[in-house]
Automatic annotation (TrEMBL):
GO terms for biological process: endoplasmic reticulum to Golgi vesicle-mediated transport. GO terms for cellular component: cytoplasm. The lineage of its organism: Eukaryota, Viridiplantae, Streptophyta, Embryophyta, Tracheophyta. Belongs to the TRAPP small subunits family. Sedlin subfamily. This is Trafficking protein particle complex subunit 2-like protein. It comes from the Eukaryota. It comes from Carya illinoinensis (Pecan).
Amino acid sequence: MIVCVAVVGHQNNPLYIQSFTEADDALKLHHIVHCSLDVIDERVNNPKKSGPTLNETFLGLLYPTENYKVYGYLTNTKVKFIVVTTDLDVRDADVRNVIYGIQKELVQLQQDLTNIIADLNRPTPIFCCNFQLL
């Protein structure tokens, strides 16, 4: 089961962190996410040690803890997706599909927001009953 999902910016700034457990575990999961950033940086900065996993953006298992497994994904723009699971026998392919789905939804959200802003900047007037009331 996924207990935490995080999206971290290219400067290691947290963009989104959501834990799906009790409040007591939230701080622990935030710490695990923060520690995983060091593992990602180590893999990116030492490609000889990380092996063939850098050929694709899915980094796979970053590290296991006693109760969790931490997986990572690095986009071309250096945005990091981190997923923490409690399933100790989870397959990499399943986690990869979840992360790809999250990325796909975020890209769609960004495109929708861009389209809304582009519509607001259009040169033609807006014809809408609600705007007439303003």
